[in-house]
Design goal:
This protein is α/β, with parallel strands linked by helices. The chain contains 16 helices and 26 strands. Helix content is 31%, strand content 26%.
Amino acid sequence: MVNTIIPLEKELTFSRFDLMSEKYPDNTAVVYLGEQFTYKRLWNLSERFAGGLRRIGVNKGDKVLLYIPNCVQWVVAYLGIQKAGAILVPVSPIYTSHEISYMIKDSGAKTIICMDTNFGYVKEAFAKTDLKYAIVTHLTELLPAWKQAMGFLLDKVPRGKVQFDEKVMPFKTLLKDPPLADKPALDPVKDLSYILYTGGTTGFPKGVPGNHIGCTSYINDVTHDMAGDHLKEGGDVYIAVNPLFHIMALGLFMAIGLNKGNMTVLMPQPHVDAILESIQRYRVRWFLGVPALYRMMLENDRIDQYDLSSLKYCFCGGDVLPGKIMTRFREKYNLPIYQVYGSTEVGHVAYSRIGSDPSSGSIGYPLKSRECIVVDPETLEPVGPDKNGELLVTSVYSMKEYYQKPEETKKTFVEINGRIYCRMGDFVSFKPDGELVYMERSADVIKHKGFRVSASEIEAVLQDHPTVINACVVGIPDEKVGERIKAIVVLKENAKGVGGVELIRWCRERLAPYKVPAYVEFRDMLPKSKVGKLLRREVRDSERQKMTKKKA
């Protein structure tokens, strides 16, 4: 029996996975499209991929952009990149060439792992950046040949055209290399594990660097303190629906799955019937979704055809869960939905306590490794219990900067009593027992389908259009998607023939689909402060008042 205790200051992001692979080699680590990958097999694939990366010149400290959806290759690449000592840069697989070109330049990545279906964007990025290599895969590449053939024959697997050469290579070729023998020495504190991108307050996404200890600190909190004895080592089942490039999904995958020798059912797309069928087939006990997914599940006409009795621990992240959904789920399955709260900058921050029903609007209790304070946003002075204020978070383990963006860092990270806190942009209150209750969010942040969308990023893209002189983007409440994205635009006086359709097309060419405005309104001017700053909150509040009047 392997000793699974590792001092936090010596732990790397893959340390516990390696221990679980030794302890439970024949346990299923990942189920993907019906194919089961044991811990031994996944460990071997990740070791070989690390060796393949080294062969093409990826060394310690190099950045590798991971531009693929949930699939077993994502997991192999993630572990292999870490073992090679390289730095993971995971991004959404639906980003455009405009978005990934910026992130390639900003991070300094020279290697990208992509799908055949989004290789067209990568091809464009080669011409705009210093990218050297593209490693290309497809959804079924690591499945048995007969499954691949069946998928293509029935036209169930999308395919893209790729021309391979010395710079563009198939994913599988890197798995033919021997395992990496001379692994680099990694310092959990000094060496980066990843750079994640979040929306920028000046219109450009910001890279958030994370070291190994920062990542493992909150994962350990989730595993040992949040889940505790409720989690069965080597005998539990988790279903991963949310995209792994998101810190919430990746953290739960490691905490509940790979770090405890458990099975994870990995879903490539959040199709409701496929999720329900997988929960039934694999007797899933742990589940994480966003509010929109829980709503779609409850509204599915076939939900009663599935046996979901195995579910025990259901979590919701990405946004605060509406009370109606929580109540309906509780009435149907006699299960509470626990809340998860965090951010790219500080990792996982707060969780509901298992065994207690979350309060209305609750975002949970702070994890042990995270310190939370609630302050007046103007003075940064603490407010009392049950008082509304901005949430600030710090941890001795987390990094407190944006990658190569000192000005952005100053706006978000502030020093209070000798400690550096991250301003979350969310307004909350502390209950007397320490539970955090959500009130509202910053006007810059729009929650759409579980994604945090930066209003200023969309505004910057709109203002790049030759006829636009000003733009304001706001979120309009919507029960199904959280908030719909609305753009309010001021055009130049001589602009002719430019309408909403043209500006939406402009955004669609430059932004991921979930960031594109649903509609555009034109105005002669927008409200600004005396120093010329856009008063986005004033516009947002005005739009919400209009909605309230219409409903009345």
